[in-house]
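Handout, page 2. Input:
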Amino acid sequence: MNGKVQSIYGGPAGVPEVSQACVETLEEWLEMARAGEITGVAMAGLCHDRAARYAIGGMVGGYSMIGALEMARADLIDLARE
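Output:
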């Protein structure tokens, strides 16, 4: 073994890179939360090693939030199929 880990997706494993689009979206949503416009959030994120994580915080629930999550889910499925 040479000590170098290779990702099954190609390239070295464990090398984080900043996604400006991700940062901008999170900053935009954080501003909305600080202004009281958003009072709860359910989110999922893709890590640099292709693992995923999720978090739920604040006042969440209701059919409108479930609908929004279903729309995000449908968009993610479309992106995965491309």
